[in-house]
Amino acid sequence: MNAALCALPGNEAFAAQLGQQLGCARFGVEVRHFPDGETYVRLLDDPAGRQLAFVCSLNDPDAKLQALLFAAGTARELGASGVGLVAPYLGYMRQDRRFKDGEAVTSALFAAQLDRAFDWLVTVDAHLHRRKALAEIFAMRAVDVTAAAAVAAWIGSQVPQPLIVGPDRESERWAAAVAAPLGAPHVVMAKVRSGDREVRVEAPPLERWRGRTPVLVDDIISTGRTMAAAASALVAQGFAAPACAGVHAVFAGGALQALRDAGVRRIVTSNSIVHETNAIDASEPVAAAIRELIPQN
Amino acid sequence: MNAALCALPGNEAFAAQLGQQLGCARFGVEVRHFPDGETYVRLLDDPAGRQLAFVCSLNDPDAKLQALLFAAGTARELGASGVGLVAPYLGYMRQDRRFKDGEAVTSALFAAQLDRAFDWLVTVDAHLHRRKALAEIFAMRAVDVTAAAAVAAWIGSQVPQPLIVGPDRESERWAAAVAAPLGAPHVVMAKVRSGDREVRVEAPPLERWRGRTPVLVDDIISTGRTMAAAASALVAQGFAAPACAGVHAVFAGGALQALRDAGVRRIVTSNSIVHETNAIDASEPVAAAIRELIPQN
């Protein structure tokens, strides 16, 4: 395959998994920061004639974007035949409309920045809200794969008799996708949110699932407040301490502690964002998408 | 004037000076960060039909650029008749060629990002190295004004019998521009640099200027190592403790302490970057440039 993978700092492990599955070259990039805060980027291998795929998870995006865009721009200048982005976590997908006058629609503005730099994009479980597909936001070929099967496989191997629980209505489709291959039941809770951090959750009647181990699942664990409120609601109904499986380990602002305080027994995430809770490999569906985007030659 | 100024956080003081000189409206922008590190931007006034000039000094640029680009993109979406950038300090002007294979030419890539977002740019004493003018880097109208007259005025009012000293050959033209209106002599030292931080400086023969107070001047004080080495060389030659006047107070990595340790008596900078050493107002030449870019109507 004419493609090469190039991991931005912190993304080496995911790129290694991908590289193994794709059997393609791994290119190096040096990123450092001058004392004044400016970023220095150097491609360590010649991208001429290559399909170069940069691997960069875009959690905490502002700190990462310049290095990524500099690397992509340089690859193009140096004759890469194509420049792609593998962003296991994408970021900036929440603010997808102007809720108040004058607000920046950052999902569209961010997408436009990426569109200018890359020819294609693969991400895992994009956190789309009001949009249905990445094609509504991106001009380039943008493929949204799911780690639901990988999450289901982990649950199947670790949790006997699981009850799959989505912590809010938005997670319904996702909880169903995880439950299906397990042949397990799934329910979703109802979230009432006020402000960025405060969350209240209402549980549906759960008597018929008594005896099962609840597993809270979601695409993203951000502040963790929704997950924590859902866990508390389950414990209050007399269930065993729930497990919690998320794809994207954003874990902003003390999220991990909040989950533990709420009685969550075990917290696992995929390797889309490097974190101590990583236990699920999300690279397989990404590799499959890349194989379709860049046919072997 | 149909124009309005909009200061990104931290740039309010400079924008206030500018606004006073231009007699134009001041628009507000809200910038905050979500717990996961993503940036939220909201324009607080309607930019429709306005020439909107964002004021944002671009030291520590990676941390500031997303908010700035989101604000500019939103102004355009909401019908601003023009979107300009006042960046008293510009940033990313140093890496203006590929010194080693594969290096990102960040001055060009950064300029391209700004070109897409803005119609015009005004900056103060751009730190150009091998380039002669901003027009070689930017596609938009980009005006580089100098604060040399403002620096000279400060020296004239504070330092009797000054000897203007440029700390390296690159500062020659700048030292000359400061010395001219004062009718003062100027000299430049010779810098030998190794690595990002280590610096050695050689002084020319200075006997004929004995009795004068040396004032080290430069466009930018970054790590301060060059300035500090120059100050030490002057003190070693028996001169009075030098003063130090710079335009851009970047002051990376303990620069201020390094200068004080080298025997610098007084350190002043312009307000292009907010810093405790600010004593010189650089807004006047910026206001003049904006008046030419946006004729009153």
Structure, described:
The structure is a homodimer of 297-residue chains. Chain A folds into 2 domains: 156 residues, Rossmann fold (3-Layer(aba) Sandwich); 133 residues, Rossmann fold (3-Layer(aba) Sandwich). In chain A, helix 1 packs across helix 8, helix 4 crosses helix 5 and helix 6 runs parallel beside helix 7. In chain A, strands 2-1-5-6-7-8 form a 6-stranded parallel β-sheet. Chain A contains 8 helices and 16 strands. Chain A is of the alpha/beta class and 297 residues long. The first copy, chain A, is 31% helix and 27% strand. At the A-B interface, strand 4, helix 2 and helix 3 of A face strand 4, helix 2 and helix 3 of B.
What topology emerges from the helices and strands here?
Two copies of one chain form a homodimer.
Chain A: E1 3-7, H1 12-22, E2 25-27, E3 29-33, E4 39-43, E5 51-55, H2 61-77, E6 82-87, H3 106-117, E7 120-124, E8 141-145, H4 148-158, E9 162-166, H5 172-182, E10 186-188, E11 190-194, E12 198-202, E13 213-221, H6 225-236, E14 243-249, H7 255-261, E15 266-270, E16 278-280, H8 283-293
Parallel strand pairs in A: 1-2, 1-5, 5-6, 6-7, 7-8, 9-10, 9-13, 13-14, 14-15, 15-16
Antiparallel strand pairs in A: 3-4, 11-12
Helix pairs in contact in A: 1-8, 4-5, 6-7
